[in-house]
């Protein structure tokens, strides 16, 4: 149940990120770089 909610939430975040990327461009690109760094740190 929790896994399903997490997957749904992640999918929604991806959709939001895709929309924001179209509007913000550079700012969203910087954010994705930060998220990648966080992802690496989190393992």
Can you offer a commentary on this structure?
α1 (2-24) runs antiparallel to α2. The chain starts with a helix and ends with a helix. 0% of the residues are buried. Helix content is 93%, strand content 0%. The protein is mostly helical and 43 residues long. The chain has helices at residues 2-24, 26-42.
Span between N and C termini?
24 Å
Provide the helix percentage. over 70%
Could you tell me the radius of gyration in angstroms?
12 Å
Structural class: mainly alpha
Helix-strand string? HH
What is the subunit arrangement here? single chain
Give the low-confidence spans.
none
Shape: flat
Average pLDDT level:
79
The major beta sheet can be summarized as:
none
Number of helices: 2
Strand content: under 5%
Number of strands: 0
How are the SSEs placed, and which strands pair?
Elements: H1 2-24, H2 26-42
Keywords summarizing the entry:
mainly alpha; single chain; 43 residues
Summarize the structure.
The protein contains 2 helices and no strands. The chain has helices at 2-24, 26-42.
